[in-house]
Amino acid sequence: MPQSVFHDDFAFLEPAQRLDFTTIERIARISARLGVSKLRLTGGEPLLRPRLDTLVARLVALPGIDDVALTTNGVLLDRHLDALYHAGLSRLTISLDSLDPAVFSHLSGGRDALDTVLSAIDKAASRGFPGGIKINTVVQRGINEQDILPLVSRFRHTGITLRFIEFMDVGTRNHWSESAVVPSATLLERIGAVYPLEPLEPLYRGEVAQRYRLADGSGEIGFISSVTAPFCGDCSRARLSSEGQIYTCLFAKTGTDLRPALADTDDAALETLLRRIWRGRADRYSEIRNPDPQRASGERIEMYYIGG
Fold first, then answer.
1. d(CA 281, CA 182)
2. Average pLDDT score over the chain
3. Exposed/middle/buried for 13, CB within 10 Å: 0-12, 13-18, 19+?
């Protein structure tokens, strides 16, 4: 969230404008009846929400939900780790784009401390989570591509899975250009030259990461290639914003407001709306992405509103 826009005096949503835990649980419960089995709490930074562990526990208890995950920047993770674990959190993903303190500071707007995040990752690994721990790294040419091999070295033999993500044109504020994208194929070649890799089969249809194991058995790496190898046709994700908008694509311009249907105490209206939204989706932005900035420009929802 750029400091130039979201300064100290910026008027964020009032607590009453955000969905409360009961409403989030209700949407998740109805979604589970429609076939959803995995839920992820993301952001923004989800650990800024007070008592998030209580929401985790409520979501874990829902019939049909077999996986509740969390994505975090790791800054506040240490103080919440035990509560999240005891609440039943299945999986944990930490965003980490560099092991260089200067590059890390640059990419995080100068707000975060690398040592704090690395310490939290080590503590999470020692604690362990049933579905495992992943590190997400967005690679930008000329910014952090030199960190790829050090990251592999750092997390070998830890049980933590690394995932390298191609730099995407999400929102309108990350100064994306096609020239800044380091293709997954390039990363695969660079890593494989030092640490031989063996491909792994997908765990399920629609898995976004192409998985590889280090041939010496020391770890697993994934590559998310939505720029060079888009996977719109198998996408099975919807995103619910904190104020009640649902989006069927990370690159959407608009969402659908669920609040009118939420005002009805009968679940039928909300279930009908969710079914209609999902059946009517036709998103395929990554498949038709146009690298010409004049033609590809236009308003898109920012990732810090709806998460990754």
1. 30
2. 88
3. exposed
